[in-house]
Design brief:
The protein is mainly β and 1292 residues long. It is built from eleven helices and 95 strands.
């Protein structure tokens, strides 16, 4: 006994809480042995355990060993909460699981009940009920500590979440079709129907197609042993390292013993035979899964591929293959051409190949060197400044080259050479191709070989081999000749910028000049050497070659000698440049400037000499600058200078005052020479001058303005000896008038014109002046211009939107625009007259003729009374001197008169009572500027005294608006209007006196209600029963509201689908017993629903909270009739009859001479499980309790389903060779004629699936067997069979 309880030693392990609860993962320890004499507890528990449960796991420990304690010490375990002396562990588990199963069964029962009447409250109650019950059960389950049912808190919470989710899912009947789902699950588990023999059977057990269609015939075509060289039509070549090439040979359904292969040399077409023995072939053999041919019907049992090593170029052909049975294998004659792999390189031409720099515009001829079997194709890339372009050169071959490859590549599936023909065309050739290129772009140029292909299709792709290299600058690729590059530089240009033959450089004696050269080029490629040829003027010396070094784009050339300087060339670091125009600069050395002067006195017959004229003649390079001085009375010195653009000039000296004058020229300069001193004695003259009288207007009098009709004053300045006599005239248009003033002694005198009455320009012209000596001088001084205004200034208002009046909101100012004429500024005077007749005046200053405004605020008429500009007083036109400002009408609201309104006072109106839910509206009239905004408060007082209020906003665009009255709930309503605003006056700007508060009251009555006392009840009646029949139970109704009532009922006749309406009026009681309706009902069920109820107030209810319906069933004698006129049926069909009467029905029928009885509803249906004759004899329903004998022939004939068997219903595999035929026999049972359909299919790869290749149908077969003959491989089987009455099909 001790040994049976002791556990084997276990290694010490660390366990968590979840492991401690798992009986499969926790290491178990045996408890200490019971004292002697103790009953065998474990044996008792084992004998009491039910046979349906596995043995209980050992009890689990509740405390882990303390640190430092020995793991082999005794451990304390707690058993179940209910001691096992009362209930053993197995029974506790059984009881716990039974309780959970009972809860689930109870849940399913409740679920079926709530789905009968869909209600949200029922669904919520169902979900809450089982959330609580299942949650409490799962949470309390671990407390009992039942082994295998004690879970951790996390697992318990997870179980509660899963059960709660499932409960919520089941309760969602309005969203998910749970009943349909459970019904579908039930049918899938228990899909049985009642058959004619009154036994429940599954329909698929008797109509399954496999019981009537059986057997299959498999035809296999055996493959042929073949060998093929290069089965994938690959190309092969030997690389530059001489790597071994492996030629593939594919063998079908055989294992080779010997392989012989011909090797034909290209030079002389001689050949040798290569032999490979079985020992060598074993090392070269590889099993592959690729089909041997493209014929999908050929499925070889084994496919081998050999890899034969070869190293020499030439033509290879299979000579013989012998299998392990010493039989020759059929060979596919294929030739393989093996040669050296094609190659290509690119290099420069001649000496250019070593030069890395080129000049733009030059020519470059890189050479492509291509080796391989012609015709060759090479693809290369050319990169210019990082932009790549790809080129392909086709059909590269030597001159006069002839080859069959020129007509296309050799066939890879047949022979390409016959004995006696030459193979020299397959020898490698080397061809060079020149690539002439004009270098037209500056930058880095690079040529790179991308790929090369020979005439056999061997392709070498260098771009993939070296794709990780910098292909343009890689030294390794350059060494292999796979790239070739250089730099193309621009050519510099040079020219003179400010000197040419037409614009020479003037060089002063003893000085140097410079001219500028402009260089265009890359400065990094400098310095640039510019060679300049100097040729002296007049051939005084031989030409000289100069050299200038330029390090930037602009340099100066210093010139010290006259002559011609011509640019010969420019040379940079890499390229020689071009010389542009201007390429020649001419340097000249002009002589120093000179002066000759001729003086002449200016004589006056009255005053004598009045001045000097100096005629100047100059030589040199213009412009000139001449300096001179004037000495007056040998005391006052005045130095002056004169700029002269030409070589001749005349200078006049006219002193303003009398005296002795000396004129001296002392210095001259031109463009080249400065400060040339002149001989003063040679260029000097003296003169004594007496000045003539003169007069001129003062500067501020040259332009005057005045008003029409006013006089103007101008000031005249006099020079000479007084007193003076002045003659002048006033010119206006074509009119002149002369005036004279004498005895003028002041140097300045003011002239006053007569009144200027015409508008426009007046010119005051000085004609002559006479001094005190009697000398008279004619004057040519500037005239004084007087601008006389054509018209006086004016002021007027400008119409706003074409009107001289405007409207504004009270308290809001507007700006009235003005139109002013004249000269700014203006003073505008206007008056204001309000509607009361009060007048005020105001003057304002304005500075703009157009755009100035007058701001007005008060309502009234504004009139302009006067205007004055900067010079003149103006006029005010009567047509636009006044503007009227009006205020917008302030918004207001009035209730539109209606018979429904009763006005109690100015602030209180009562509206007619209305029924709950009826539409009603209050019409208001709005005055002002739309749109309007009306603010009102609605207060609702419920029948229980509860009051609710809310504020609303009515927005209207028209003068009249409707306010919807609230009628959804019955009670007292009060509408208080608080204010109104429109588009002009918003809520903040409405004056306090513009609105009068109004209050409207209305009472809303409740709608009446009607209901059946016993809704859902089925009332039974007989056909043509009268209302006076006391045995008929009346239909009771309950009415709510104010009597009398009018009740409208809807009748729906289920037999016809038609509906009728019945109206009952003048119901004076709230309880009503309905009897009269029975007499108008015919046979069948009639659904009666309440359509409408009207009470004494006229309130109507047409919608009811709950479905109000009762059923009246009017019965007649039952009848039975077939659902279809069909007589012949097949096994597996359903025979149906339509019953009339009150279900359930009792049916008696006879099948194959045996009487059967069945209770059913309509329709009556039975599954035909066996062939025979089926006849209905009588029918009885539950209403009439009478059995009715069936008259007429209600007999149905049931036929068996035909069958077809292929190969006697078994599976036969038949192997045939190509060209043979196989016979396939189909046998039938049933009633001829027969028709059947068969298919031929094949397997898809290695899977078990099959693909149908073809389908055939054969009909009108009178015999019970049919044979077909075929030589096509595949699986032959029947899929359908049909006889005279019935048919069967696979999968049906």
């Amino acid at each position: 006994m001790v040994s049976s309880l002791t556990s084997p030693p276990q290694p010490a392990t660390r366990s968590n809480g979840l492991q401690a609860r798992s009986p499969w993962r926790t290491p178990l320890r045996a408890p200490s042995l019971p004292p002697p004499g103790t009953p065998d507890y474990f044996s008792q528990r084992t004998t009491r355990l039910p046979s349906s449960f596995p043995p209980s796991p050992p009890r689990q420990r509740t405390d882990a060993p303390r640190p430092g304690s020995s793991p082999s010490g005794p451990e304390v375990f707690l058993g179940p909460l209910i001691p096992e002396e009362y209930i053993d562990v197995g029974s506790q588990r059984l009881y716990a699981l039974s309780i959970f199963a009972f809860i689930q069964a109870w849940k399913i029962y409740d679920l079926t009940q709530i789905h009968k009447v869909i209600s949200t409250e029922a669904e919520l109650s169902f979900a809450f009920k089982y959330l609580v019950i299942e949650g409490l059960y799962l949470w309390a389950l671990p407390v009992f500590r039942i082994p295998w049912l004690t879970f951790s808190p996390a697992v318990t919470v997870l179980q509660i979440v899963i059960c709660s989710a499932w409960t919520i899912f089941l309760s969602s009947a309005s969203v998910l079709p749970i009943s349909a789902f459970l019904s579908a699950v039930w049918r899938a588990i228990y899909d049985r129907e009642v058959s004619i023999s009154e036994h429940r059977i599954r329909a698929k057990d008797i109509v399954h197609g496999s019981s009537y269609i059986s057997g299959r015939h498999v035809v296999h075509i055996l493959p042929e042993s073949t060998a093929k060289l290069n089965p994938r039509a690959e190309t092969f070549c030997i690389d530059e390292l001489g790597t071994t090439v492996y030629l593939p040979i594919r063998l079908n359904a055989t294992e080779p013993k010997l392989v012989q292969m011909y090797h034909v040399v290209y030079d002389d077409a001689s050949y040798t035979t290569l032999n490979f023995t079985r020992r060598e072939l074993r090392k070269m053999t590889e099993v592959i899964s690729v089909p041997a041919s493209h014929d999908s019907r050929s499925v070889p049992s084994k496919i081998l591929e050999l890899k034969l090593p070869v190293k020499e170029p030439g033509l290879y052909r299979l000579a013989r293959v012998v299998d392990t049975s010493n039989l020759d294998v059929k060979l596919y004659q294929v030739d393989v051409l093996l040669s050296q792999c094609p190659s290509a390189n690119v290099r420069g031409y001649g000496e250019l190949s070593q030069i890395q720099d080129r000049c733009i515009g030059a020519l470059d001829s890189p050479t492509l060197r291509v080796s391989g079997i012609p015709p060759l194709r090479v693809k290369y890339s050319r990169s210019i400044k990082g932009r790549d372009a790809m080129f392909s050169v086709q059909s590269i071959q030597p001159d006069h080259f002839s080859s069959p490859l020129l007509q296309g590549r050799p066939s890879r599936t047949g022979r390409v050479w016959h004995a006696g023909d030459t193979l020299e065309w397959a020898l490698p050739q080397t061809v060079e191709v020149a690539l002439d290129t004009t270098l037209g772009t500056v930058g880095r140029w690079a040529y790179m070989i991308d790929e090369v292909e020979d005439g056999l299709g061997n392709l070498v792709n260098y771009s993939r081999i070296y794709e990780d290299k910098d292909r343009e600058d890689s030294p390794m690729l350059a060494k292999k000749g796979l790239n070739y590059g250089f730099l193309v530089h621009s050519r510099p240009t040079v020219r003179f910028t400010n000197c040419n033959a037409e614009q020479p450089v003037n060089l002063a004696k003893g000085r140097k000049a410079s001219t500028h050269l402009q260089l265009q080029g890359t400065l990094a490629e400098g310095p640039y050497k510019v060679r300049i040829l100097y040729t002296p003027s007049e051939n005084e010396a031989p030409p000289e070659m100069l050299e200038l070094t330029m390090r930037n784009g602009r340099e100066s050339l210093e010139i010290s000698k006259p002559g011609s300087y011509a640019i010969e060339s420019v040379q940079g670091k890499f390229c020689e440049g071009d010389v542009l125009e201007s390429a020649t600069c001419l340097a000249l050395m002009p002589a120093e400037p000179t002066l000759s002067v001729k003086f002449e006195d200016i004589e006056d017959k009255c005053a004598g000499s009045i001045g000097v004229t100096a005629d100047l003649t100059l030589t040199g390079t213009p412009p000139f600058k001449l300096r001179y001085r004037i000495v007056t009375d040998r005391q006052r010195l005045e130095n002056k200078s004169l700029d002269i653009e030409n070589t001749r000039h005349q200078l006049q000296f006219r002193p303003d005052s009398a005296g002795h004058y000396i004129y001296e020229f002392f210095m001259l300069r031109d463009r080249l020479y400065d400060n040339i001193q002149l001989d003063v004695k040679q260029f000097r003259t003296e003169q004594t001058v007496k000045v003539l009288a003169s007069a001129s207007f003062a500067r501020d009098s040259l332009n005057k303005k005045c008003c029409t009709g006013d006089s103007a004053e101008v000031t005249v300045n006099f020079h000479g000896t007084g007193p003076f006599t002045l003659t002048y005239e006033i010119l206006h248009g074509n009119k002149r008038k002369q005036y004279s003033i004498s005895d003028i002694t002041e140097p300045a005198h003011t002239l006053t014109t007569p009144p200027l009455t015409s508008g426009g320009a007046y010119n005051v012209v000085l004609l002559s002046v006479e001094d005190g000596n009697g000398c008279k001088s004619t004057l040519s001084e500037a005239d004084a211009k007087i601008e006389v205004r054509w018209q006086r200034p004016a002021a007027q208002f400008v119409a706003i939107d074409g009107k001289m009046n405007a409207m504004a909101m009270k308290g809001q100012s507007i700006n009235v625009p003005l139109r002013l004429s004249g000269e700014a500024p203006w003073l505008v005077t206007y008056t204001y007259k309000n509607p009361s007749g009060v007048t005020a005046s105001e003057t304002v200053s304005k500075y703009h003729a157009n755009g100035d405004t007058i701001s007005v605020l008060d309502e009234g008429v504004y009139e302009i009374t006067g205007v004055e500009d900067a010079f003149c007083p103006g006029l005010v036109p009567k047509s636009a001197n006044s503007f009227e400002l009006s205020w917008f009408e302030r918004p207001r609201m009035e209730l539109v008169e209606s018979p429904s309104l009763v006005v109690l006072d100015d602030n209180l109106v009562v509206r007619k009572d209305i029924c709950e839910g009826d539409e009603d509206s209050l019409e208001v009239a709005l005055y002002g500027s739309p749109p309007f905004d009306v603010l009102y408060e609605r207060e609702y007082k419920a029948p229980d005294g509860n009051v609710k209020a809310g504020t609303f906003d009515l927005q209207a665009l028209t003068k009249y608006a409707n306010i919807r009255m609230e009628t959804e709930k019955h009670g007292a309503y009060k509408y208080s209007f608080k204010g109104i605003s429109d588009s002009v006056y918003n809520g903040a700007n409405v004056p306090n006196d513009a609105f009068t508060p109004v209050e409207v009251q209305q009472l809303v009555h409740p709608r009446p209600d009607a209901a059946f006392v016993n809704p859902g009840t089925v009332y039974k009646s007989c056909l043509k029963a009268g209302a006076e029949d006391s045995s008929i139970e009346p239909i009771q109704l309950k009415l709510v509201g104010l009597a009398p009532f009018a009740l409208t009922l809807h009748l729906k006749h289920e037999n016809t689908g038609q509906s009728d309406t019945v109206t009952i009026s003048n119901i004076k009681d709230n309880h009503y017993f309905l009897r009269s309706i029975y007499s108008s009902l015919g046979l069948g069920r009639h659904a009666i629903t309440i359509g409408k109820v009207t009470d004494g107030r006229g309130c109507v209810r047409e919608q009811f909270r709950l479905p109000q319906q009762v059923i009246v069933s009017v019965s007649d004698v039952p009848t039975i009739s077939p659902s279809t006129p069909r007589v012949n049926y097949c096994v597996g069909d359903r025979i149906s009859f339509i019953l009339t009467g009150v279900p359930p029905f009792e049916i008696e029928y006879e099948f194959n001479g045996k009487r059967q009885r069945a209770n059913t509803n309509s329709p009556f249906s039975r599954l035909a499980s066996t062939p025979g004759n089926f006849t209905i004899t009588s029918v009885k329903d539950s209403a009439s309790s009478c059995k009715v004998a069936v008259h007429g022939d209600l007999t149905k004939l049931i036929h068996d389903v035909p069958t077809v068997k292929v190969s006697e219903g078994t599976s036969i595999i038949q192997d045939i060779h190509e060209g043979d035929r196989a016979e396939i026999v189909f046998r039938f049972s049933g009633t001829p004629p027969f028709a059947f359909t068969y298919t031929r299919s094949e397997k898809i790869g290695r899977s078990s699936r099959e693909r149908v290749l073809e389908t055939h149908t054969v009909s009108d077969i009178e015999e019970d067997a049919y044979s077909i003959y075929t030589s096509m491989e595949g699986v032959y089987e029947a899929i359908s069979i049909e006889d005279r009455y019935c048919r069967a099909r696979v999968g049906a």
